[in-house]
Amino acid sequence: MTTSRPGAWPARLTSGTDPVVTLRPLAASDVEAWRLARQRNAAWLAPWDATAPPGSSARVSSFRALVRRLRRQARQGVTYPFAVEVDGHFAGQVTINNIVRGSAQFASVGYWLDQRFAGRGVMPRAVAMAMDHCFTAAGLHRLEVAIRPENSNSLRVVEKLGLAEVGFAPRFLHIDGAWRDHRIYAVTVEECPEGMLARLEGRGSAGPAGDGLGGVSPGTR
After folding, report:
1. Residue 80 is assigned to a structural domain of this protein
2. Residue 97 lies in domain
3. pLDDT value of position 212
4. For 92-146, how does the pLDDT look when each residue is reduced to its tens digit (9 = 90+)?
5. Which of 6, 51, 92, 138 is deepest in the core (most CB within 10 A)?
């Protein structure tokens, strides 16, 4: 069984002053803030949310069940489920999924943001923070983001981060009730020796289109 690398999890990461963005483990106590955010953003999130294909047993009955599953996966070292806070308020999630060790040292990144926090550069910074943690404390080598071609907000996130497009995957993930095509972006640790957050800050702060929803929205699986 895969186990989490010492120091990689649990983790609390904080960056910036306006706004202050914090990543910390998703907790059962987030239930009310998570539920309100999902309700408030239902229409905005639905086109990009991961869904369970017909016949799949992957559906989660409740938020607490979701947290229990993610905690178990975190102990196994295959998932790092971060809650995103903006100035101390719950704002969304960044989840490092499908961590593969051995000769790969690879993972994928999924994220979603409450729309009321959009336009402040939150998600590019949160993803950069999570990636830096993966490349340092977690010792990963390559990170990948899969994005629907129609998801302009999420495409702006990877653009701000300077991620290279490395491929196109037809019918790659089950999103919003059907198998959807995805554009694939990736980065390796050698490509950003200065760190992703330093790279982002060197490019300037994200503009109004720079916050968005990831190609994999793990908070709803």
Report:
1. yes
2. 13-220
3. 56
4. 999 999 999 999 999 999 999 999 999 999 999 999 999 999 999 999 999 999 9
5. 92
Do the beta carbons of residue 185 and residue 160 sit within 8 Å? no
φ, ψ of residue 143 in degrees (nearest 5) = -125, 145
Tokens of 151: 């998801």
Looking at the chain, the whole-number percentage of residues with pLDDT higher than 90 is 82
- Please tell me the pTM assigned to this model: 0.90
Place of tokens 């990636």: 131
In a domain, 131, yes or no: yes
Strands of 80-86's sheet in order across: 13-15, 21-25, 80-86, 89-100, 106-113, 142-147, 178-188, 164-175
Query: Which CATH number covers residue 187?
Result: 3.40.630.30
Q: Return the ∠ at Cα 147 (arms to 144 and 149), rounded to 5°.
A: 140
Instruction: Find tokens 């963005």 and name the residue.
Output: 21
Integer Cα distance of 121 and 136 in angstroms:
23
| Torsion of the alpha carbons at 21, 3, 142 and 122, rounded to the nearest 10 | -10
